[in-house]
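PT: before anyone asks, these are the final sequences, not the draft ones from last week. 859 residues across everything. Please model them as a single complex and drop the result in this thread when it's through.
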Amino acid sequence: MQQLDNQEILMKLKSQKQFWDIKKKIKQGFNDQQKIGVNDIQKFAQSCEIEDQLIKLISHILKKSKKRETLKEDQIEFLNTSKIKWTELLFKNLDIVHQKTKNQEEDDTNTDSKLYIYDEKNLLAFLQTFKQQQSNTLYQNVQFQSNKILNINIPLKSSQSILDKYQYLLLQEELSDEKINKIRKQIENEHLDIELEKIAQTFVPNGERCLLYLKYFEFDHQDTVLQQHFAKLQKECLNQLFYDELLEIDGHEISEDTFYFVFQEQILTCLKCFIRDRTIKENIRIQLQSGIKKEHAEFQLPITGFFPFKNISKYVAPLCYLSTKIHIIYALFKEFFCRYFCFLHSISSESNSILSLCMQIEEIVSTRSPKLFHHLKIIGCDTLKLIIHQLVYCFIGDMDPPHILTIYDQIIGHDSLEILVILCVGFLNKYKSKLLLAKNQENVQQIFSELREDRFQELVQYAYKQ
Amino acid sequence: MFELKIFMYNKKLKWKSDFEKSVIIENFLNRGWIKSQEKEDDSTDWNVYWATVWNQIINHFPNHYELTRKDCMVKNLKRFKREQDRETYEQQGWNFDFLPTTYIFPGEYSLFVEEFHRSPNQTWIVKPAARSQGQGIFLLRQIQQLKKISGTTITSNMTQLNLVSKENYVVSKYIDNPLLIGGKKFDLRMYVLVTNYKPLKVWIYNKGFGRFCNEQYTTDVAEIENMFVHLTNVAIQQYSDKYSKKHGGKYSIDALKFYVESAYGTEAFQKMIDDIHNIILTSLKSVQVVIQNDKHCFEMYGYDILLDNNLKPWLIEINASPSLTTTTPVDKNLKLNLINDIYNIVLPNDDFPDNEQKQQQINKIGGFSVLYDESLDLMNRKTQKRQSVKIWK
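LR: through. Structure below.
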């Protein structure tokens, strides 16, 4: 971790617009005074919250100076060995997929649609294979319940703390035009990520969302750099990779979606650039595959360090609404993936990981809706199997784009994917009465195949109903 | 011929009337017509029926073509513009800058030729005045292409054009800088309900869709005849290899609205909406004096609007019978609710409202909101216009 000395902090402060605003304010406060002592400045600063603003600004600089290392090793050893096994499995799947594509080239009538390396069901099935580990004295507070499908001792936040954290969403009211205009001005003037997070937690006007995201990721003055980086990647796309074919196949589903079909070409372009982007490996917060090199293998891992998976297109799609510039869409997608969505595909005990999120959902549903939990088990339709698609793909395809981007706002707002736990619980509660009448898996599939409209606020309300 | 005359003289037409007005009955008797003996209301034993329409409504105004035929629409808009003085229409907040330069053939052929030569790089779009679904439409870059509709070679000294089919054509400047999403051209289909022309009452529906082309847009002259690039009609795009039955190339207005606001900002979005509302109101005002208003009539129009890459909307045409064919489940849901909401407005609680009831101030029913109600006083109208954007939120 890089430590900054006072001189460096001062230099960084001087590069921030807020620093100069604060300085101007202090100067204006002491207009005509000839002699100004340190105590005078301190009193003045405290009286008009300048001290507070300065502290936030310095914290922001210190936070930004810490370079986040990519998590490669988990604190729990068996998860590290599991990650290796998962990677080996994916290499095998890659060989099978490659063989299938060869067969398809030879035989047009054989259109097997399972041309992907893994999907969310494969991931969940793999997680289910973890055996219960020996109890570790550090994690004895986690109770083992045999009726849950994920039987692992990992540190888990209490589900009540997650429910409490997002309870404020129940009180959100429609804002007046005046308040919305105030938020707009705030976004235009704000630079501190802590303040941007607060805005994202409450309400983000549609017209200012892109700006908020760009500021949060510190891209707001980087247009030329982003454009050049993207242009370079586009040139590299001229050399075809095997994975391009998988991405094209993956794009078929999004090309049928009524909300995203218009962005089909942009999505594919972004993904082709993504799998060629060398900077992802150093920016991604968690290593997804173990990075082993297979001897004599026809294909290695893409340069990103992980395999593209089924429905990867979905993560790009909602961001296409935010800008007409593809390099901006790409930059936002890359950042969202590297900071957040990567955890949804990681074998890890981190709080944002798919494992932790799944266990939280099971915990909440089994304790707050035990009847539903057990009924689903009896009819062979476990809670997690029902919700895994919505969880892994952040409800993209289930909710309209404005609601999806509200989810993205909350992810930024809390620097966490836990909002997905709330929404998944709410989703199950919403369809509880129908699910309780279902007698088998076919009945359950029928419930979800009917035309439905799930909304963010609605699912939050349902999450807190018992 | 003589036998025919005797036949015609001896032919006794049967009449029926809902009410016994002497001026009507005497006319029938003088003509030697016979009263139909069938008493039942639903009897069809008549040739002439003088009906009352106390409890009947119909979904068209008698001469809606003044608005919905392309040549009549252009003629009325031009007339209306000439009639307004600048001060009036600026005060009302109207503007007329939404119709591409258009000429009606054959009458305005010579004017077109002058303009054509003034703008040699301009592409034009030629459309039959009274047809639909993209039939007969083509893009024009060379005047010789008019041979398609004249049947004869076009020469530079021709001052008039004789059309083979005797139907009128409209020729407009082609908007060659449309707003593209995903590189493809689209237009908007929006639904507008008029329940009264005098005074004018207009409802706008909050659902509609963008109709997308299946091919990437290009101004390349080599692709000028590729209708899959240029014409958004579903009737044309459904024949493209890339046509999807799942979404039918239809992108919801809600999604489009969200995209414009998110990608271009709230201010740009609001201006676009205001401009669209201006198109609807100005076009309806332009035919207000010519349309035969009738309390038994209402009409639902399908407005086709094209956005250019500055988010400026242009009026393409207005349809009196917008397609009610449903191509996808979402489409079916939209049109089902559309018709349902129309009847909730025109027949509230299955009652036939009188004029006064029609003017009652209910501003929103189902997906429809009042866009314009002339019966309100001027002050209220100005407030209504400012609030028009909220209809879409």
